[in-house]
Amino acid sequence: MLFEFLQICLAVLYFVYMRRRRKLRLGSSTDGADDKPKKQLIPGPPSVPILGSYPFAARCLGYWKWLFMRNYEVLHILSVKYGEVFAGYTGAHYMVYVEDYDVAKALMSSDEWINRYNNHPMFYERSFNKPLGLALAKGEGWKEMRRFTIRTLRNFGFGKGNSLESSLKTELEEIQHIFREQVDSKPGGTGVVDMHNMFNVHVLNVVWTMIASDRFSRNDPKLRRLMVMLEKVSKSAPQGLSFTFCMPFLRFIPGLTTHGMNLRLHRETQNMFKAIIKQRREKGEFMKNPSDFIDVFLKEIEELKSEPNSWKAQVYTDEQLIMVCVDLFFTGGDTTSTTLEFAILYMLLNPEIQRKVQEEIDQVVGDEQPTLDHKLRMPYTEACTLEIMRYSTILPITARSPVEDNEINGYLVPKGTMVGINLHQLHFSEKLWDEPKIFRPERFLDENNNLITNHKLLAFGHGKRGCPGERTARASVFIFLTSLLQKYTFEPSSQHRFPVVDPISGFNQHPQPYHALVKVRQKLA
Predict the structure, then answer these.
(1) Long-range contacts for 355-363 (Cβ within 8 Å, ≥24 apart)?
(2) Does residue 183 form part of some domain?
(3) Is residue 458 in some structural domain?
(4) At what angle do helices 200-212 and 318-349 cross, to 10 degrees?
(5) How far is the C-alpha of 512 from the C-alpha of 500, rounded, in Å?
(6) How many domains does the chain have?
(7) Rounded CA separation 107/407 (Å)
(8) Rounded to an integer, what distance in angstroms lies between the CA atom of residue 271 and that of residue 1?
C-alpha cells in the first residue's frame, strides 16, 4: 500500500512539473502572427522532474556540503557560476535569484514587481488559506491594508516624535531597572548580563500599545511561550534550498521540518487576537471611542456592513484584522530586538568603536536622557547604527514577484515567479563596499564626518514594499543603544564562551547567545 501511495505521489509531482514547464515554455513564445523571436527564460542550472535543479546545484556546491550552508551562501556560489541574475527549478517551481544591486533596486522600486510570492500552498496555510495580512498578501487588498495600517498607527503615535519617545521611555525604564539590579548593585558596579532576548518584549511593547492599548509583562508566561516559538521558527528554517518546495507533502511528516511548529505558532497567536476581538465586541466601545488599531479596524468592519457587496467589505474582515495584527506582532517582536542584540555584540567586540560612540554621547547628550532631537547631531552614532544593520543583515533574502509577465535584462520572467534578492551578498559585495567583512562605521561618513545618505544599504528593503516600521525601528535602536552606552561599557565575559560574530541563520539572522561583562562608566560612577 505504501509503495502504491509513493508511486501516485511521484506521478502527481511529475505531472505538475511537466505542466509548469509547458506553461512556462508557452508563456515565453510570441503570438503566431508575430515574427519576433521567442523570449528566453533566464539562464541557470538544468533541471529534472520532481527534483528540479537540485542535482545540478548540488554538484556545483559540493554535493552534500550545501545541506550545511546558509541560504544566501548557496545562492552566492551558484551566482558565481551562472551570473548575478540566474534561475532554476525548486521542484516544479521556477525561481529567479538576483545579486545585482541595480537590478535589485529597480525591482523593489517598481509597482510592476510589487507582489510577494505566495503561490506555494504552505504560504496560505498560515493565514486561513487566503492571501491576508501585510507580509505575503498581494494586489489591491495588500495596498489597502498597507495604507490603512500606516495611517491608523500614525494616528496613535507610530513613528511620531513625542508619542514614540514616550513609549520608548517607558520600555527603556524597564530595561534600565534590569541593569541596575544586575550591574549597578554589584560590587564595583560590574556584573555579567545575559543579552539573549534582553530587548524583545520591550521592543514589542512599543508597537503593542498602539495595536491593543496594552503592554506585556516581561514574565508573562503566554507571551514568553509565543516568543520562544517565534525564535525557534525564525532560526530553524532549512539550510540550503528547502525540500518542502520540491516535495510539499514532506511538511506533514512530524519533526522533519519546522512547518508544524510554524502553524502552531500562528494558530496560538491568532487565538490570542480572536479573544481580544471578542472582548472588544462585547464591550462595544470601539464604535464611539476607538482607542487603538484594533478598535479602528473593528469600526471599519461594522460601517462596511451597510455595503456588503463592496470590495472593501471583502477586504475588511475579522480574518484580515487577525493576520495584520499577527504580522505586526511578529515583526515588532523579532527584527528590532535582534538588531539591538547584534549592536551590543559588535560594541563589545570593537571597544574602540564603542568608545567613539560614547564620546559623541558625552559631547552631544551629556547627562541628559538621549532623545530623537540628539540623533540629528550624532553622525558617528548614526553611521554606527547603519553599519550594525549592514553587518547583521537580519533579513538575508527578500522576494518580489511580477504582477504580469515581465523582463530582467531582456529575459522573460513569467507572472507570479518568485524573485529572490540576496540582500546579504549585496551588503557584503566587494563591488559595493570597501573591505565589507570589516565592521567600520566610517564607511557611512564623508571626509567632513557628515552622514552619507546616498548609500547602498537595503536593510529595510526599498519602495512601497519596504518595511513600514523603518522610522520606529531606527528610533528604537538609537534610544535604547545610546541610553545604555551612556551609562555602561560592554566587554566580553571571561566566565562564558567568548562571543562570536558568526550568526544563527534561518528565515532571519540572530546572534549566537552571549553574555556581556557590563561596567558602570567611571564618569558616572
Answers:
(1) 356/380, 356/384, 357/381, 357/384, 357/482, 357/485, 358/485, 358/486, 358/489, 358/521, 361/482, 361/485, 361/486, 362/486, 362/523
(2) yes
(3) no
(4) 150
(5) 7
(6) 1
(7) 10
(8) 38
The 3-class SS string of 327-351 reads HHHHHHHHHHHHHHHHHHHHHHHCH
Cα distances (angstroms) measured from residue 140 to each of 30, 119, 186, 464: 29, 17, 57, 13
For every residue of 60-76, DSSP letters joined together read HHTGGGGGGS-HHHHHH
> How many whole angstroms separate alpha carbon 68 and alpha carbon 60?
15
End-to-end CA distance of the chain: 75
The DSSP output letter for 511 is: P
Grid cell in block for residue 208: 503593542
Measured CA to CA, the distance from residue 57 to residue 490 in angstroms comes to 43
DSSP 211-244: HHS----TT-HHHHHHHHHHHHHHH-SPSSS-HH
Instruction: Tell me, letter by letter, the H, E, C secondary structure of 253-288.
Output: CCCCCCHHHHHHHHHHHHHHHHHHHHHHHHHCHHHC
Q: What is the CATH number of the domain that holds 302?
A: 1.10.630.10
Sequence-separated (6 or more) residues with CB below 8 Å from residue 303: none
Whether 69 maps to a domain, the answer reads: no
Asked if 294 and 325 touch (Cβ cutoff 8 Å), the reply is yes
Residue 305: CB partners within 8 Å, gap ≥ 6?
Answer: 313
pLDDT in tens, the chain (525 residues): 444 445 455 545 554 555 555 455 444 444 444 444 457 989 999 988 878 887 888 787 776 776 678 889 989 999 999 999 999 988 778 999 999 999 999 999 999 999 987 666 677 888 888 889 998 888 888 999 999 999 998 887 765 556 788 889 999 999 999 999 999 999 999 999 999 999 999 998 988 888 998 888 888 887 888 788 777 777 765 443 456 666 777 777 776 677 777 788 888 889 999 999 999 999 999 999 999 999 999 999 999 999 988 999 999 999 999 999 999 888 877 889 999 999 999 999 999 999 999 999 999 999 999 999 999 999 999 999 999 999 999 999 999 999 999 999 999 999 999 999 999 999 999 999 999 999 999 999 999 999 998 889 999 999 888 888 888 899 999 999 999 999 999 999 999 999 999 999 888 899 999 999 999 998 644
Segments in 180-216 forming alpha helices (H): 200-212
Task: Give the amino acid at 56.
Answer: F
- Domain, as residue range, for 165: 140-238+258-388+469-525
**CA distances to 385, 390, 429 from 432, in Å:** 18, 12, 5
Q: What 3-state class would DSSP assign to 461?
A: coil
Radius of gyration over alpha carbons of the chain, in Å?
25
Asked, for residue 406, whether it belongs to a domain, the answer is no
Place of cell 510539499: 248
Cβ–Cβ < 8 Å for 133, 327? yes
Give the pTM.
Answer: 0.89
Residues facing 96 on adjacent strands: 87, 419
